[in-house]
Amino acid sequence: MAEVVILPQEQLVELATAQILDRLHQNPEMVLGVATGSTPMPIYERLATSGADFSRARAFALDEYVGLPESHPQSYHHVVDSSVTKPLGFKPQNVHVPNGNPETIIHAGADFEAKIAAVGGIDIQILGLGTNGHIGFNEPGSSLSSRTRVKVLTEKTRMDNSRFFDSIDEVPGHCITQGIGTILESKQLLLLAFGKKKAKIAHAMLEGPVTASVPASAIQLHRHVSVLLDEDAASELENANYYRYVWEHKLGGQALG
Ligand code: F6R
């Protein structure tokens, strides 16, 4: 079972931050998997003010739009640079985002996978949750063993993400994303979801079957995963009280999962 933690958002951010800093302390060269979108931003802000030294750490983004220039304010190259690389003090050469340039897209997935493999894999992968159940940009129907590759975004995702653009027409139709198989190879997963609009899909992810129709349900196959939900996102869970009980009775140093 995934470890499910239901607490106010600020406490979840503290928990996630503490886990990352703990890992960094054990290994200054740790490999952090970073999500974009709104959910993880408070973690990056908190890490930035912690004074921790990320100068030897490495980071990998989950995904990128295809066809947006890297300098576009909504390209994930740009977002990762301004919300992670610069404020946390990563060396730019240690931060990797899939290359969404259409001219080289044919081998961009394999190139990205090779870079992850070259550093020995991702230590902690931060994940957000799409309202349609995607993790990364693995839309419903994605193979549960998929690798980094191009995907066509659903209308729902383009609509959800249009808030970052002037209109939905500006949201690219294609992306390149770590596959579900890639994500499952990270040593630890930290998935966060906040707000009522994530409640239904959080229930499907945790308490429904493992199915490609809810790509995030694949996290049930991982043996070290923490799901951090605020009360609103947890409001449709059938076993919420049991998760709270388990959290309150957690033994120090106990392995998660
Ligand atoms: C972002 C990503 C997406 C988001 C998800 C939730 O790199 O891969 O899976 O995590 O769409 O987005 P927010 O956090 O904006 O609700």
Which percent range describes the beta-strand content?
Answer: 15-25%
Write down how many β-strands occur, each being a DSSP E stretch of 2 or more residues: 10
Write down the oligomeric state: single chain
CATH class: Alpha Beta
Query: Can you tell me the number of structural domains?
Result: 1
Features:
257 residues, alpha/beta, Rossmann fold, binds fructose -6-phosphate
Structure characterization notes:
- The protein is of the alpha/beta class and 257 residues long.
- It has one domain (3-248): Rossmann fold (3-Layer(aba) Sandwich), CATH 3.40.50.1360.
- It has helices at residues 9-26, 41-49, 76-88, 105-118, 155-161, 180-184, 199-207, 240-248, and strands spanning 3-6, 31-34, 58-61, 63-65, 95-96, 124-127, 149-152, 174-177, 188-193, 225-229.
- The strands form 2 sheets. A 7-stranded parallel sheet has the order 1-10-9-6-2-3-5, with helices on both faces. The protein has a 3-stranded antiparallel sheet with strand order 4-8-7.
- α1 (9-26) crosses α2 (41-49) and α2 (41-49) packs parallel to α3.
- It is globular, with a radius of gyration of 17 Å.
- The termini are close together.
- It binds fructose -6-phosphate.
- Fructose -6-phosphate binds at residues 35-39, 62-63, 128-130, 134-137.
